[in-house]
Write the structure tokens for this entry.
Amino acid sequence: MPTPSHLVQNYRRAAIRFVRGQGSRLYDADGKGYLDAFAGVAVSSLGYGHPKLVEAIARQAAAVTHVSNYYTIDQQEELATALVAASFPGRVLFCNSGTEANECAFKVARLWANQVHGGTKPRMLSFHGGFHGRTMGSLAVTSNAAYRTPFAPLAECDFIPFNDVAALEAAITDQIAAVWVEPVQGEGGVIPAAPGFLARLRELCDRHHVLVVADEVQTGLTRCGSYFAHQQDGITPDLMPLAKGLGGGVPIGACVMSERCADLLKPGLHGTTFGGNPLACAAGLVVAEETLTPVMAAQVIARGEQLRAGLATVFPEALAIRGRGLLVGVQLPTDPAPLITKARDLGLIVGPAANNTVRLAPPLIITAPEIDEICGILAKARA
Ligand SMILES: Cc1ncc(COP(=O)(O)O)c(C=O)c1O
């Protein structure tokens, strides 16, 4: 690393340089291997060096990388078709990140309020612990005060406790344009929606003409054992921001939306230069092909159950072991930061989440022996 660094110091980075990866393993500059149970924050769903992904990226890079959204991009059409087929009837707008996908949903919510409801819906609704990104619209619906306060003023948003039906019933009124919800809160501590909570939310939103934004940036693309996590709650959202796993490591975001939402975005109202370029969509198509299958969903459920059972043995003192599929959190009585560092020294990558939670989100291709290995290393790390 050059000294002094010319990078903005907005991240607390570990002094570790990963230079290559294979399967579910990363290797640092000294050749040390690490089993990766975090996948670059739930991004590298197909792991590293996946032959189909590598081949598709190389082929597309050689053909054409970028053309701009002034032109027809077949790869976008194909990927949109795959995403809609696996989720709900509607259309897709491509962008580059999770925050942009939520930003798109925010703009649709404003159009819904202003054009359809004559400005009578000035407020958004979100949940304590909810995380939707760092740009100004997405930040407005993100609850963490440390992220928000320095950037005030933000757009109006009400926050209520997650999984609290009484609070939900009181908060959803005709003044609300849209409600933002993660079917499993990721950053907030890997907290799944309680049974029936999202169904009640959908019912109230229908009654008060409120759009439901199911933020599946972290939970989507089979991470939770169904193609999209909200499918386990038996609801259909109006908008579904996606990113993270969608490109298997290539930056791409998407906002899937119902026809009535898509109709609001007339030409010129929203756009992005890079969003859904041929390279990103070529990667997304491989991820969609590999992850949106019943076989992958069954595998994720099985590996997730194995992981939770193993973690319960390793951490008998855990306050909770939560999650769905391969998005798993272990809530400990104390700050897990030293454990996370020790695990890394022992060759295992896991991540943090709020409320003293260790977050695990390994590649979806992780094997049963590797799940045992994760638990074995964590057992040593806590010893
Ligand atoms: C649920 C959710 N929404 C949005 C985002 C923001 O995504 P990005 O960091 O790609 O902007 C994240 C990132 O962690 C997320 O977990």
The chain has two domains: 18-50+293-382, 53-291.
